[in-house]
Amino acid sequence: MAEKKIKIVISGPYAAGKTQFINTISEIETVKTEVKTTRSGEKEKKDYTTVAMDFGRIKIDDEHTLYLFGTPGQSRFDFMWDILGKGMVGLVVLVDSTDPATFHEARRIINYFESRYPAPFVVGCNKQDLKGAWSPDDIRTALDLGEEIKVLPLVSVDKQSVKNVLLVLLDEIAKYI
Amino acid sequence: MAIAGDLRIFNLVDIFQVLRKDKKDGILVIESSPKNYAVYFKDGDIIFIREVAKVFYVYLDVDFEGVLRKDGISREEMYNILVARLPNFLNLKEGKFSFTPGFIKYPLDITSQVHIEKLIMYLSRQLTEEEVGRKISDLHLVFEKSEKYEEIGRKAFLTDYEKKLLTLVDGKNKVEDIINISKINELMVKRTLYGFLASGIIQRERKKERRIGFDLTRGLLNKIIAKIKGL
Protein backbone atom coordinates (compact mmCIF):
# COMPACT_ATOMS: atom_id res chain seq x y z
CA MET A 1 0.00 0.00 0.00
CA ALA A 2 1.34 3.42 -0.93
CA GLU A 3 2.35 5.55 2.04
CA LYS A 4 0.16 8.60 2.67
CA LYS A 5 2.17 11.54 3.99
CA ILE A 6 0.65 13.91 6.54
CA LYS A 7 2.68 17.09 6.79
CA ILE A 8 3.25 19.43 9.72
CA VAL A 9 5.64 22.34 9.13
CA ILE A 10 7.99 23.57 11.86
CA SER A 11 9.06 27.12 11.04
CA GLY A 12 10.67 30.01 12.86
CA PRO A 13 13.59 32.41 12.80
CA TYR A 14 17.23 31.45 12.63
CA ALA A 15 18.43 29.49 15.70
CA ALA A 16 14.94 29.23 17.24
CA GLY A 17 15.39 25.47 17.74
CA LYS A 18 13.51 23.94 14.79
CA THR A 19 15.97 21.13 14.07
CA GLN A 20 16.18 20.28 17.79
CA PHE A 21 12.35 20.22 18.03
CA ILE A 22 12.17 17.64 15.21
CA ASN A 23 15.11 15.63 16.62
CA THR A 24 13.44 15.38 20.00
CA ILE A 25 10.23 13.78 18.70
CA SER A 26 11.14 12.02 15.44
CA GLU A 27 11.21 8.21 15.32
CA ILE A 28 14.01 8.30 12.79
CA GLU A 29 17.20 10.27 12.93
CA THR A 30 16.29 13.64 11.44
CA VAL A 31 17.23 13.96 7.79
CA LYS A 32 19.20 17.19 7.72
CA THR A 33 20.36 19.53 4.98
CA GLU A 34 22.81 21.43 7.13
CA VAL A 35 25.94 23.25 6.10
CA LYS A 36 28.56 25.01 8.16
CA THR A 37 27.62 28.61 8.93
CA THR A 38 29.97 31.15 7.47
CA ARG A 39 28.07 34.43 7.53
CA SER A 40 28.80 37.04 10.15
CA GLY A 41 25.95 37.26 12.67
CA GLU A 42 25.05 33.62 12.06
CA LYS A 43 28.23 31.74 12.87
CA GLU A 44 28.31 33.33 16.33
CA LYS A 45 25.00 31.61 17.14
CA LYS A 46 25.59 28.08 15.87
CA ASP A 47 28.01 26.01 13.80
CA TYR A 48 25.59 24.45 11.29
CA THR A 49 22.40 25.70 9.67
CA THR A 50 19.56 24.19 7.63
CA VAL A 51 19.59 25.25 3.96
CA ALA A 52 16.70 23.32 2.36
CA MET A 53 14.67 21.54 5.01
CA ASP A 54 14.97 19.02 7.79
CA PHE A 55 12.50 16.28 8.28
CA GLY A 56 11.54 13.82 10.93
CA ARG A 57 9.02 11.01 10.69
CA ILE A 58 6.45 9.37 12.93
CA LYS A 59 4.69 6.27 11.61
CA ILE A 60 0.98 6.38 12.44
CA ASP A 61 -0.24 3.07 10.91
CA ASP A 62 0.53 0.88 7.90
CA GLU A 63 -0.91 3.49 5.59
CA HIS A 64 -0.09 6.87 7.16
CA THR A 65 3.12 8.59 8.22
CA LEU A 66 3.39 12.00 9.89
CA TYR A 67 6.25 14.09 8.55
CA LEU A 68 7.64 17.07 10.44
CA PHE A 69 9.31 19.43 8.00
CA GLY A 70 11.63 22.12 9.35
CA THR A 71 12.09 25.24 7.23
CA PRO A 72 15.40 27.09 6.98
CA GLY A 73 15.50 30.05 9.36
CA GLN A 74 17.11 32.72 7.20
CA SER A 75 14.88 34.87 4.99
CA ARG A 76 17.12 34.22 1.98
CA PHE A 77 15.68 30.69 1.94
CA ASP A 78 12.05 31.79 2.16
CA PHE A 79 11.26 30.29 -1.27
CA MET A 80 11.11 27.02 0.69
CA TRP A 81 8.09 28.28 2.67
CA ASP A 82 5.92 28.03 -0.45
CA ILE A 83 7.05 24.50 -1.20
CA LEU A 84 6.53 23.36 2.37
CA GLY A 85 3.29 25.30 2.97
CA LYS A 86 1.41 23.50 0.22
CA GLY A 87 -0.54 20.57 1.65
CA MET A 88 0.37 21.05 5.29
CA VAL A 89 -2.21 20.18 7.95
CA GLY A 90 -0.72 22.50 10.56
CA LEU A 91 2.13 24.84 11.38
CA VAL A 92 4.31 25.32 14.47
CA VAL A 93 6.17 28.64 14.57
CA LEU A 94 9.06 28.65 17.03
CA VAL A 95 10.66 31.73 18.58
CA ASP A 96 13.71 32.10 20.76
CA SER A 97 12.11 33.54 23.91
CA THR A 98 15.40 35.09 25.01
CA ASP A 99 15.98 37.05 21.80
CA PRO A 100 13.34 39.68 20.90
CA ALA A 101 15.26 40.37 17.69
CA THR A 102 13.80 37.10 16.38
CA PHE A 103 10.20 38.13 17.11
CA HIS A 104 10.08 40.33 13.98
CA GLU A 105 11.14 37.41 11.79
CA ALA A 106 8.60 35.12 13.47
CA ARG A 107 5.89 37.70 12.75
CA ARG A 108 7.00 37.85 9.11
CA ILE A 109 6.73 34.06 8.86
CA ILE A 110 3.25 34.10 10.45
CA ASN A 111 2.16 36.93 8.13
CA TYR A 112 3.38 34.95 5.12
CA PHE A 113 1.66 31.67 5.99
CA GLU A 114 -1.53 33.36 7.23
CA SER A 115 -1.85 35.24 3.92
CA ARG A 116 -1.25 32.21 1.71
CA TYR A 117 -1.67 28.91 3.57
CA PRO A 118 -3.96 29.63 6.53
CA ALA A 119 -3.68 26.25 8.22
CA PRO A 120 -4.18 25.88 11.98
CA PHE A 121 -1.04 27.03 13.78
CA VAL A 122 0.49 27.44 17.23
CA VAL A 123 3.54 29.33 18.48
CA GLY A 124 6.18 27.57 20.59
CA CYS A 125 8.18 29.92 22.81
CA ASN A 126 11.43 28.00 23.00
CA LYS A 127 14.23 28.33 25.57
CA GLN A 128 11.79 29.04 28.39
CA ASP A 129 14.30 27.38 30.74
CA LEU A 130 16.88 30.10 30.09
CA LYS A 131 17.41 33.34 31.99
CA GLY A 132 16.00 36.35 30.18
CA ALA A 133 13.15 34.45 28.52
CA TRP A 134 10.07 36.54 27.69
CA SER A 135 6.75 35.09 28.86
CA PRO A 136 4.47 33.48 26.24
CA ASP A 137 1.83 36.17 26.96
CA ASP A 138 4.24 39.01 26.24
CA ILE A 139 5.46 37.19 23.10
CA ARG A 140 1.84 36.87 21.96
CA THR A 141 1.46 40.66 22.20
CA ALA A 142 4.79 41.28 20.50
CA LEU A 143 3.71 39.05 17.60
CA ASP A 144 0.32 40.85 17.26
CA LEU A 145 -1.56 37.63 17.97
CA GLY A 146 -5.02 37.43 19.51
CA GLU A 147 -6.12 35.24 22.40
CA GLU A 148 -7.50 32.67 19.94
CA ILE A 149 -3.98 31.65 18.88
CA LYS A 150 -2.21 29.28 21.27
CA VAL A 151 1.20 30.62 22.32
CA LEU A 152 2.92 27.93 24.35
CA PRO A 153 5.99 27.58 26.56
CA LEU A 154 8.57 25.23 25.08
CA VAL A 155 11.93 23.66 25.86
CA SER A 156 12.74 21.90 22.59
CA VAL A 157 15.23 19.46 24.14
CA ASP A 158 12.46 18.14 26.40
CA LYS A 159 10.26 15.46 24.83
CA GLN A 160 7.19 16.17 27.00
CA SER A 161 7.39 19.84 26.11
CA VAL A 162 7.59 19.10 22.37
CA LYS A 163 4.74 16.58 22.65
CA ASN A 164 2.61 19.20 24.40
CA VAL A 165 3.09 21.69 21.54
CA LEU A 166 2.19 19.06 18.93
CA LEU A 167 -0.86 17.88 20.88
CA VAL A 168 -2.17 21.43 21.22
CA LEU A 169 -1.69 21.89 17.47
CA LEU A 170 -3.62 18.66 16.82
CA ASP A 171 -6.44 19.96 19.08
CA GLU A 172 -6.50 23.11 16.97
CA ILE A 173 -6.65 21.05 13.77
CA ALA A 174 -9.57 19.06 15.26
CA LYS A 175 -11.64 22.27 15.41
CA TYR A 176 -11.62 22.47 11.60
CA ILE A 177 -12.46 18.84 10.76
CA MET B 1 9.86 36.74 33.25
CA ALA B 2 11.96 39.26 31.39
CA ILE B 3 11.05 42.07 29.05
CA ALA B 4 14.48 43.13 27.88
CA GLY B 5 16.35 43.77 24.67
CA ASP B 6 18.00 46.31 22.39
CA LEU B 7 16.21 49.45 21.17
CA ARG B 8 17.78 49.18 17.73
CA ILE B 9 15.80 46.03 17.03
CA PHE B 10 12.84 46.41 19.39
CA ASN B 11 11.81 50.04 19.33
CA LEU B 12 9.78 52.14 21.78
CA VAL B 13 6.52 51.48 19.92
CA ASP B 14 7.07 47.72 20.28
CA ILE B 15 7.87 48.10 23.99
CA PHE B 16 4.84 50.34 24.63
CA GLN B 17 2.63 47.80 22.86
CA VAL B 18 3.67 45.04 25.29
CA LEU B 19 3.40 47.24 28.40
CA ARG B 20 0.02 48.64 27.34
CA LYS B 21 -1.57 45.25 26.65
CA ASP B 22 -1.82 44.05 30.26
CA LYS B 23 -1.74 47.57 31.74
CA LYS B 24 1.55 46.83 33.41
CA ASP B 25 2.96 48.68 36.46
CA GLY B 26 6.71 48.95 36.82
CA ILE B 27 9.89 50.68 35.70
CA LEU B 28 11.34 50.68 32.21
CA VAL B 29 15.07 51.36 32.33
CA ILE B 30 16.93 52.40 29.22
CA GLU B 31 20.70 52.38 29.39
CA SER B 32 21.82 54.88 26.81
CA SER B 33 24.65 57.30 26.27
CA PRO B 34 25.03 59.95 27.68
CA LYS B 35 21.98 59.44 29.92
CA ASN B 36 20.07 56.55 31.40
CA TYR B 37 16.31 56.81 31.67
CA ALA B 38 13.89 55.35 34.20
CA VAL B 39 10.32 55.48 32.97
CA TYR B 40 7.62 54.84 35.55
CA PHE B 41 4.54 53.00 34.26
CA LYS B 42 1.20 52.68 35.98
CA ASP B 43 -1.63 50.75 34.32
CA GLY B 44 0.40 50.71 31.09
CA ASP B 45 0.70 54.52 30.93
CA ILE B 46 3.74 56.69 31.61
CA ILE B 47 3.58 58.51 34.95
CA PHE B 48 7.05 59.98 35.16
CA ILE B 49 10.51 59.97 33.56
CA ARG B 50 13.77 60.25 35.48
CA GLU B 51 17.20 60.81 34.02
CA VAL B 52 19.77 58.95 36.11
CA ALA B 53 23.55 58.77 36.04
CA LYS B 54 23.70 55.19 37.32
CA VAL B 55 21.03 52.57 36.80
CA PHE B 56 21.18 51.15 40.32
CA TYR B 57 19.89 54.49 41.68
CA VAL B 58 16.52 53.54 40.19
CA TYR B 59 16.19 50.52 42.44
CA LEU B 60 16.93 52.36 45.68
CA ASP B 61 13.33 53.58 45.99
CA VAL B 62 10.31 51.32 46.16
CA ASP B 63 7.89 54.13 46.95
CA PHE B 64 6.99 56.61 44.20
CA GLU B 65 6.44 59.46 46.68
CA GLY B 66 10.06 58.88 47.76
CA VAL B 67 11.23 59.22 44.15
CA LEU B 68 9.55 62.61 43.84
CA ARG B 69 10.94 63.74 47.19
CA LYS B 70 14.46 62.71 46.21
CA ASP B 71 14.20 64.64 42.93
CA GLY B 72 12.71 67.64 44.78
CA ILE B 73 9.55 67.60 42.66
CA SER B 74 6.02 68.26 43.87
CA ARG B 75 2.97 66.42 42.54
CA GLU B 76 1.87 69.67 40.85
CA GLU B 77 5.18 69.95 38.96
CA MET B 78 5.24 66.29 37.93
CA TYR B 79 3.24 66.66 34.70
CA ASN B 80 5.24 69.63 33.39
CA ILE B 81 8.52 67.87 34.08
CA LEU B 82 7.27 64.71 32.37
CA VAL B 83 6.27 66.70 29.29
CA ALA B 84 9.65 68.47 29.26
CA ARG B 85 11.54 65.16 29.40
CA LEU B 86 9.39 63.28 26.88
CA PRO B 87 10.98 64.63 23.64
CA ASN B 88 14.50 63.46 24.55
CA PHE B 89 13.19 60.12 25.71
CA LEU B 90 11.02 59.56 22.64
CA ASN B 91 14.00 60.37 20.43
CA LEU B 92 15.98 57.41 21.74
CA LYS B 93 16.93 54.96 19.02
CA GLU B 94 19.75 53.10 20.75
CA GLY B 95 20.28 51.56 24.14
CA LYS B 96 19.48 48.50 26.17
CA PHE B 97 16.07 48.30 27.78
CA SER B 98 14.68 46.23 30.61
CA PHE B 99 11.32 46.40 32.33
CA THR B 100 10.93 45.45 35.98
CA PRO B 101 7.27 44.73 36.73
CA GLY B 102 5.77 45.81 40.06
CA PHE B 103 8.64 46.99 42.25
CA ILE B 104 7.43 50.57 42.71
CA LYS B 105 4.46 51.41 44.96
CA TYR B 106 2.25 54.17 43.58
CA PRO B 107 -0.24 56.26 45.56
CA LEU B 108 -3.77 55.26 44.53
CA ASP B 109 -4.69 58.76 43.37
CA ILE B 110 -1.81 59.11 40.86
CA THR B 111 -2.93 58.67 37.27
CA SER B 112 -1.23 59.39 33.98
CA GLN B 113 -2.19 62.44 31.98
CA VAL B 114 -0.43 61.21 28.86
CA HIS B 115 -2.11 58.28 27.15
CA ILE B 116 0.34 55.70 25.83
CA GLU B 117 -1.83 55.30 22.69
CA LYS B 118 -1.08 58.93 21.78
CA LEU B 119 2.66 58.31 22.13
CA ILE B 120 2.43 55.10 20.09
CA MET B 121 0.75 56.93 17.19
CA TYR B 122 3.19 59.87 17.47
CA LEU B 123 6.20 57.54 17.23
CA SER B 124 4.63 55.41 14.51
CA ARG B 125 4.44 58.45 12.22
CA GLN B 126 8.26 58.55 12.24
CA LEU B 127 9.05 54.87 11.65
CA THR B 128 11.50 53.97 8.90
CA GLU B 129 10.65 51.71 5.99
CA GLU B 130 12.75 48.95 7.56
CA GLU B 131 10.87 49.29 10.86
CA VAL B 132 7.36 49.20 9.35
CA GLY B 133 8.37 46.10 7.41
CA ARG B 134 8.72 44.27 10.70
CA LYS B 135 4.97 44.34 11.34
CA ILE B 136 3.42 45.11 7.97
CA SER B 137 5.57 42.64 6.07
CA ASP B 138 2.93 41.50 3.61
CA LEU B 139 0.54 43.45 1.37
CA HIS B 140 -1.94 40.56 1.59
CA LEU B 141 -2.51 41.02 5.33
CA VAL B 142 -6.07 41.70 6.44
CA PHE B 143 -6.96 43.52 9.67
CA GLU B 144 -10.17 44.28 11.51
CA LYS B 145 -11.10 46.92 14.06
CA SER B 146 -10.80 45.86 17.68
CA GLU B 147 -13.77 45.88 20.03
CA LYS B 148 -12.66 49.14 21.71
CA TYR B 149 -11.34 50.92 18.64
CA GLU B 150 -13.40 54.07 19.17
CA GLU B 151 -12.29 54.55 22.77
CA ILE B 152 -8.63 53.81 21.95
CA GLY B 153 -8.81 56.02 18.86
CA ARG B 154 -9.94 58.96 21.01
CA LYS B 155 -6.98 58.45 23.36
CA ALA B 156 -4.63 58.24 20.37
CA PHE B 157 -5.66 61.64 18.89
CA LEU B 158 -5.77 60.38 15.31
CA THR B 159 -5.13 62.75 12.44
CA ASP B 160 -7.66 63.16 9.62
CA TYR B 161 -5.84 60.83 7.26
CA GLU B 162 -5.48 58.21 10.00
CA LYS B 163 -9.23 58.38 10.62
CA LYS B 164 -9.79 57.92 6.89
CA LEU B 165 -7.50 54.87 6.85
CA LEU B 166 -9.32 53.41 9.86
CA THR B 167 -12.60 53.40 7.93
CA LEU B 168 -10.93 51.16 5.34
CA VAL B 169 -9.93 48.53 7.91
CA ASP B 170 -12.95 46.24 7.71
CA GLY B 171 -11.80 42.63 7.90
CA LYS B 172 -11.92 42.36 4.10
CA ASN B 173 -9.55 44.95 2.61
CA LYS B 174 -5.96 43.81 2.27
CA VAL B 175 -3.13 46.26 2.97
CA GLU B 176 -2.68 46.71 -0.79
CA ASP B 177 -6.42 47.54 -1.15
CA ILE B 178 -6.15 50.18 1.60
CA ILE B 179 -3.18 51.75 -0.22
CA ASN B 180 -5.01 51.72 -3.57
CA ILE B 181 -8.36 53.01 -2.31
CA SER B 182 -6.97 55.72 -0.01
CA LYS B 183 -4.35 56.88 -2.52
CA ILE B 184 -2.17 57.66 0.48
CA ASN B 185 1.56 57.05 0.26
CA GLU B 186 2.43 53.39 1.01
CA LEU B 187 4.89 54.19 3.80
CA MET B 188 2.32 56.43 5.54
CA VAL B 189 -0.32 53.70 5.31
CA LYS B 190 2.07 51.12 6.75
CA ARG B 191 3.16 53.45 9.54
CA THR B 192 -0.47 54.07 10.43
CA LEU B 193 -1.37 50.38 10.44
CA TYR B 194 1.71 49.69 12.57
CA GLY B 195 0.52 52.30 15.10
CA PHE B 196 -3.06 51.01 15.00
CA LEU B 197 -1.83 47.46 15.73
CA ALA B 198 0.52 48.52 18.52
CA SER B 199 -2.10 50.69 20.22
CA GLY B 200 -4.83 48.05 19.95
CA ILE B 201 -7.08 49.98 17.54
CA ILE B 202 -6.95 47.13 15.05
CA GLN B 203 -6.04 43.45 15.20
CA ARG B 204 -5.32 40.65 12.78
CA GLU B 205 -8.36 39.28 11.03
CA ARG B 206 -9.67 36.35 13.10
CA LYS B 207 -10.03 33.53 10.61
CA LYS B 208 -13.27 31.59 10.80
CA GLU B 209 -12.03 28.92 8.42
CA ARG B 210 -8.61 27.35 8.16
CA ARG B 211 -7.27 25.22 5.34
CA ILE B 212 -6.11 21.68 6.09
CA GLY B 213 -4.08 20.34 3.18
CA PHE B 214 -4.97 16.66 3.63
CA ASP B 215 -8.20 14.71 3.78
CA LEU B 216 -7.91 14.24 7.52
CA THR B 217 -10.71 12.31 9.23
CA ARG B 218 -11.44 12.54 12.94
CA GLY B 219 -10.54 8.84 13.27
CA LEU B 220 -7.11 9.37 11.72
CA LEU B 221 -6.52 12.50 13.81
CA ASN B 222 -7.31 10.49 16.97
CA LYS B 223 -4.75 7.90 15.85
CA ILE B 224 -2.12 10.62 15.45
CA ILE B 225 -2.94 12.05 18.88
CA ALA B 226 -2.69 8.59 20.49
CA LYS B 227 0.65 7.98 18.74
CA ILE B 228 2.14 11.30 19.90
CA LYS B 229 0.94 10.72 23.47
CA GLY B 230 2.60 7.31 23.45
CA LEU B 231 6.01 8.48 22.23
Strand order of the largest sheet of chain A: 4-5-1-6-7-8
Shape of chain B: globular
Structural class of chain B: alpha+beta
Number of strands of chain B: 7
The helix content of chain A, as a percent range, equals 25-40%
Number of helical elements of chain B = 10
CATH superfamily of chain A: P-loop containing nucleotide triphosphate hydrolases
Residue-averaged pLDDT of chain B: 94
CATH architecture of chain A: 3-Layer(aba) Sandwich
Distance between the termini of chain B: 31 Å
Largest interface: A-B, 54 and 42 residues
Question: Major beta sheet of chain B, specifics?
Answer: 5 strands, antiparallel
Provide the number of structural domains of chain B.
2
Structural category of chain A is alpha/beta
Count of discrete domains of chain A: 1
Please tell me about this protein's structure.
Chain A has 177 residues and is an alpha/beta fold. Chain A has one domain (4-174): 3-Layer(aba) Sandwich (Rossmann fold), CATH 3.40.50.300. Chain A contains five helices and eight strands. Chain A has helices spanning 18-25, 79-85, 101-116, 136-142, 159-174; strands at residues 4-11, 34-36, 48-50, 54-59, 64-70, 88-96, 121-126, 151-153. In chain A, the strands form two sheets. Chain A has a six-stranded mixed sheet, with helices on both faces. In chain A, strand 4 and strand 5 form a beta hairpin. The longest helix of chain A has 16 residues, at 101-116. The two termini of chain A are 25 Å apart. The mean pLDDT of chain A is 87. Chain B is 44% helix and 16% strand. In chain B, the strands form two sheets. A five-stranded antiparallel sheet of chain B has the order 1-5-2-3-4. In chain B, strands 6-7 form a two-stranded antiparallel sheet. Chain B has 231 residues and is of the alpha+beta class. Chain B folds into two domains: 3-113, no CATH class; 118-204, no CATH class. At the A-B interface, strand 6, helix 3, helix 4 and helix 5 of A face strand 1, helix 1 and helix 10 of B.
